[in-house]
Amino acid sequence: MPCIPGYEGVGSVINIGSRVQKSMLGRRVLPLRGDGTWQQYVTTSASSANEVPNFVRT
Question: Is 51 helix (H, G, I), strand (E, B) or coil?
């Protein structure tokens, strides 16, 4: 069975659901959702998207 590894993935919010604040768009976040963050696109809940400050380099 294929597996996508990774717990430490940082990216920018490019799309949001209807119940998510529009201010989330463009923010750099760490999606604390478990395995599978080493991929180009990740879907997660807004409560699992923790903002990463700009002074933290990726």
Answer: strand
CA atoms within 13 A on the CB side of 23: 2
Q: Is the pTM of this model over 0.85?
A: no
Residue linked to tokens 């180009």: 40
- Which residues are registered as beta bridge partners of 51? 29
Q: For tokens 């463009």, name the residue.
A: 26
- Residue ranges of E strands in 7-46: 11-12, 28-31
Number of Cβ within a 10 Å radius of residue 30: 19
pLDDT of residue 1: 64
